[in-house]
Amino acid sequence: MKNLLYLAIVTIMVGCCKPCNQSAPKIGDLESGVCTLIEFKYNPIENSQITVRFDAAEKMMYGTAACNNFFGGYTLSNNKQDNIKFANVGATRKYCPDMEIENKFTESLQSVTKVKIDGNHLMFINSLDEMVALFVKEK
Prior knowledge:
Blueprint: H1 2-17, E1 34-40, E2 43-44, E3 51-55, E4 60-64, E5 69-76, E6 84-91, H2 100-108, E7 112-118, E8 121-126, E9 131-137
Antiparallel strand pairs: 1-2, 1-3, 1-9, 3-4, 4-5, 5-6, 7-8, 8-9
């Protein structure tokens, strides 16, 4: 009788923990390496100094721009239409000449709802399914 009770308890515990064993959503190799911006809102960017990387352990995005650094939390989901959500995006605020692209880029991060990886390219896409930014993964 004790063995039967023990078996029932173990079975229940294993069944309850099954959701605990499911892995978090993952999008390709998003959370490895550094990517450099090569296109912003369909305009090529020459000699870009804007980079982004994702830290899987901290669920943080970090990046550099020509003048400032930016950062923010993110959450991935299995939803194909909206697979990423950025939160608490911020940036350092040093003044530098010619910050137009940098400012527009950091402001646009809040509109990103989807990331897509195609080979060594990373795309940020908004809710209208427009590409906001295109990056190339550094080797």
